[in-house]
Amino acid sequence: MIRAILIGLLLLFGAAPAAAGLDEGIAYYNKGDYFRALSELKPEAEDGNAIAQVYVAGIYQYGLVSHINYAEAYKWYDLAARQDNVDGQIGLGVLYSLGQGVEKNLVEAYKWLRIAADRLPQSSDRSRIIGALDAISESMTKDEVAEALQRAKDWEPGGP
Question: Within a domain: residue 160?
Answer without folding.
Answer: no
